[in-house]
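This week, work through this protein record:
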Amino acid sequence: MDAFFDWLTDINSVLQDFIWSKIGIILLLCTGIIMTCCTKFFQLSHLGHWLKQTIGSVFSRNGSATKKTDKKTISQFQALCTALAATMGTGNIAGVAAAVMIGGPGAVFWMWVAAFFGMMTNFSENVLGIYYRRKNKDGEWSGGAMYYLADGLGGKKHCRLFGRILAVMFSVFVILASFGIGNMGQINKITLNLESAFFSGIDLGEIGGISVLSLIIGVVLMILAGLIILGGLQRIASFAEKIVPFMAVTYIVGSLIVFFVHIGSVGDMFAAIFRFAFSVDAAAGGAAGVIIRKVITEGFKRGVFSNEAGLGSSVMVHSSSNVKEPVKQGMWGIFEVFMDTIVVCTMTAIVVLSSGYIDLQTGMAAEGANDATLVSQAFGNVFGAPGEIFIALAMLMFAFTTVLGWSHYGSKAVEYLFGDRAIKVYKVIFVLMILSGAVMTSTLAWDISDTFNGFMMVPNLIGVLTLSPLVAKITKNYVDRRIKGKNEEPMLSFDPKIQEEAKAALIEEYGETEKQQPVSV
């Protein structure tokens, strides 16, 4: 049996290296660049507009982004928070620290580059998700890469079978990844983190080789998650809407305090980021084997792992929004990547680089530094023991909300493959698997699921690239109508019935003719 697992580990390592290092980085970067060009650098050219229409609308007087139109949908802000709940996991803390330790300070720069182009990849996914979504038997929106692969790519000449095959492949990979990277991997990290931070030295013995303490933690997490997950998307979104903004703001404030305590190193810190981003050696003087390719790879990989732009995952929750305009939800996709990587991951990078554990002259990590505890140690140096407890709790919430978000992704993939009735069965299995994640000791399960996570990306990006002219057309239509005030027919859905319903709703919202109502920037 050991020989089998060794063989499986070797095979998975080869596949994971191939999908992420060989295909993934190039495919993601090319897609991001192409979509940025197709939309005429929308993330820059309309920076003020998408900020006003996303986070700005949350604080506007009418508060349209936070309003729900009916019980079957969620608000635009809830869709964002649920998507962020799934993307903001332990990778935002330990993952960024690992990227800096492996790739040096320069990895942060390439993380930013990945996020810049990833904004438009995520934008495009969500535009297509809204445009090709439809309602299920319960009156809830169902959307995601599987739908624009089947109906969008599959709607092209001679591509019907190809599109449907890719849609099925994507759905299968989503389900497999949801149990691993979206469930057991996160729960295992929560369990280990809680045992280290709060129950160090406590040994309750074992039952059948399983730690009793891990079992107890697993049961508690399973019950808590079950109460939320089994309540459906509305309950998940309601929880995410309350917890995600709080944990993000708290973590950012704490990171800024650490940064200002080490304000004297700010110049050296940013100089190191840019110097090592283009240096042949990741650490000039002592790390002669780590070349720039590893710096770039680690930065891109961390950016993608963190915000999931290109995987097609968050589209499944964004598509459940009550929004009518595809581009409007696309802008929330831009903000999602901005918040997750440009803000939260950058805060982690700042903590790591300003903590003294990374030599800013050589780019080398201090002896004894560990990516799993680096951020915790940095907070501990400033806040003492409460700082380390804070990071433990932050990782707990980041990981737990990731589990909730991925439960929805998996349920939508199950719905596409097997129908509405199979969703309840999937959710029960998903909740029960939480217990397995708490007591497992091998990393093979989530290493394999991480590979499946990468395999999700390939069919999704094929769909996005194939439908890029449509994304450009929908975006231009929105800009002409809503920003320039031109009199044009809105592009809201591929389905004529949904198109007319959405158009009528826009006319009701904006007046007799919505296309005469430009949105000020």
